[in-house]
């Protein structure tokens, strides 16, 4: 049995510092997991320049460098494995065991290698696999769906990565759905999710027997910044957060309400939640926006669980 770790983080358009401790985000025990899938939102500010202009691969490279350092920190490395890590950049999608990858084999089987990285504006996905497992991965593919401005630009949408591990097809959907805290904005998020399910597609392969749609895969994980809020008055929400009454808050969580009413994610299951709402903190603090740290005239943002994995 293999273990997969999936992480998602909206970084608010902030480029990571060189000494960012990624170990705080994941279990780096050497025998912990075999595959790591990292999903980020807003790795660049969602400005018109970034939405319409070329992608900033330097930011992706920086995240990959930090991820690689954290995953392989505890592994004793040879000069050859050090050379491998120097190569970790933004990788194109390619089949495992291609001629190029065969030339690179021979590293520590415990070492993690980047199989694929893909950016769409602010959404960034990076998949890392143990060296000893790479030969069992086939049919790696990526599909991007823009749901943002005009219903097609990449400031909102998804980056989906799929591959086969032995005979099991795995699909990882990293999304950033429509924002907004007004009544009815949850409908826009439902529509984005439906668009992602409808428009994400992959090649059927030479034998035409590979999964084409998200729901065709054996195992699917949907994660990211889904942006669903809590349907309570802000003052009530903050009071319940202060009291850590998570179950009461979750009863009014928009995502759970929409799923219960059959409006979205029919048949999906969300993991257990036993932690504070993830939205929205002041940078480098544990204080929510609108708290005592706020500035006069600052937009108030009620706490909510925007980030989810299903």
Automatic annotation (TrEMBL):
Keyword Hydrolase: yes
Gene Ontology terms describing biological process: phosphatidylinositol dephosphorylation
Superkingdom of origin organism: Eukaryota
A molecular function (GO) term: inositol-polyphosphate 5-phosphatase activity
Sequence ranges of Acidic residues compositional bias: 98-108
Domain Inositol polyphosphate-related phosphatase: 1-308
Sections of the chain in a coiled coil: none
Annotated stretches, region: Disordered: 75-110
Keyword Mitochondrion: no
UniProtKB keywords: Hydrolase
Pfam family for this entry, one: Exo_endo_phos2
Stated family: Belongs to the inositol polyphosphate 5-phosphatase family.
Protein name, as recorded: Type I inositol 1,4,5-trisphosphate 5-phosphatase CVP2
Organism, as annotated: Acorus calamus (Sweet flag)
């Amino acid at each position: 049995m293999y273990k997969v770790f999936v992480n998602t983080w909206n970084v608010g358009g902030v480029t990571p510092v060189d000494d960012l401790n990624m170990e705080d985000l994941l279990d780096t025990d050497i025998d912990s997991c075999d595959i790591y899938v990292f999903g980020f939102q807003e790795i660049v500010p969602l400005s018109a320049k970034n939405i319409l202009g070329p992608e900033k691969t330097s930011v992706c490279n920086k995240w990959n460098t930090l991820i690689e350092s954290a995953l392989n920190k505890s592994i004793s490395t040879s000069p050859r494995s050090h050379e491998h890590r120097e190569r970790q950049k933004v990788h194109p999608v390619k089949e495992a065991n291609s001629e190029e990858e065969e030339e690179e084999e021979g590293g520590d089987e415990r070492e993690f290698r980047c199989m694929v990285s893909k950016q769409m504006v602010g959404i960034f996905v990076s998949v890392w696999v143990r060296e000893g497992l790479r030969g069992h991965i086939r049919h790696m593919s990526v599909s991007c769906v823009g749901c943002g401005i005009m219903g097609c630009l990449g400031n909102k949408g998804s980056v989906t990565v799929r591959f086969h591990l032995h005979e099991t097809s795995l699909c990882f959907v990293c999304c950033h759905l429509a924002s907004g805290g007004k009544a009815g904005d949850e409908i826009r998020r439902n529509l984005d999710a439906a668009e992602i399910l409808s428009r994400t597609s992959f090649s059927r392969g030479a034998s035409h027997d590979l999964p084409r749609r998200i729901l065709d895969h054996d195992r699917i994980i949907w994660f990211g910044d889904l942006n669903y809020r809590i349907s309570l008055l802000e003052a009530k929400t903050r009071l319940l957060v202060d009291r850590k009454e998570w179950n009461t808050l979750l009863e009014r969580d928009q995502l759970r309400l929409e799923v219960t009413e059959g409006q979205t994610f029919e048949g999906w299951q969300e993991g257990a939640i036993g932690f504070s709402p993830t939205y929205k903190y002041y940078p480098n603090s544990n204080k929510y926006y609108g708290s005592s740290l706020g500035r006069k005239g600052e937009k108030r943002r009620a706490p909510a669980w925007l980030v989810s994995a299903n």
